[in-house]
Amino acid sequence: MIKLTEASGDDGKFKTAIWVPLDVLIRDHIDGMALIKVKNIPGNIIVQESPKEVAKKILECKLAMVKYSTGYAQALQHHGDPQWIFENAELKISDLAGLEEPQ
């Protein structure tokens, strides 16, 4: 999931943090904002981020998850420090999702 900012009300002046899955449809909307469609949820959501920003966050999160899984396996195979890789990947994914540092 990634964290975005929903823009609602007249002219999108009300801002609310929302978390969406990585498989959303992204479209251009007015004033550089993006319109996103989430599977199995009726309607669309207007977010203050641009379509490019949403796509970039999604790609960064997907890449971080791939790096995490392959990096962990390679560290185990080559006697590296898998705990260090695990902690850094978890921090990156949590940051993209807009979550607090994991406990």
Structural features, described:
The chain has 103 residues and is an alpha+beta fold. The protein has one domain (2-96). Helices cover 41% and strands 26% of the residues. The protein has helices at 51-77, 82-96, and strands at residues 2-8, 14-20, 24-28, 34-38, 45-47. Strands 3-4-5 form a three-stranded antiparallel sheet, with helices on one face. β4 and β5 form a beta hairpin. α1 (51-77) packs antiparallel against α2 (82-96). It is elongated and about 55 Å long.
Give a short synopsis of this structure.
By secondary structure, this protein is an alpha+beta fold. It is built from 2 helices and 5 strands, in the order βββββαα. It has one domain.
Total separate domains = 1
From the alpha carbons, calculate the radius of gyration and give it in angstroms. Answer: 16 Å
Q: How many strands in all?
A: 5
Strand order of the largest sheet: 3-4-5
Low-confidence stretches: none
Largest sheet: 3 strands, antiparallel
Mean pLDDT: 83
H and E string: EEEEEHH
SS-based class: alpha+beta
Percentage of residues assigned to helices: 40-55%
Q: Termini, distance in Å?
A: 18 Å
Shape: elongated
Q: Number of helix segments?
A: 2
Give the DSSP E fraction (strand runs of 2 or more residues): 25-35%
List keywords for this structure.
103 residues, two-stranded antiparallel ribbon
Secondary structure: elements and pairs:
Elements: E1 2-8, E2 14-20, E3 24-28, E4 34-38, E5 45-47, H1 51-77, H2 82-96
Antiparallel strand pairs: 1-2, 3-4, 4-5
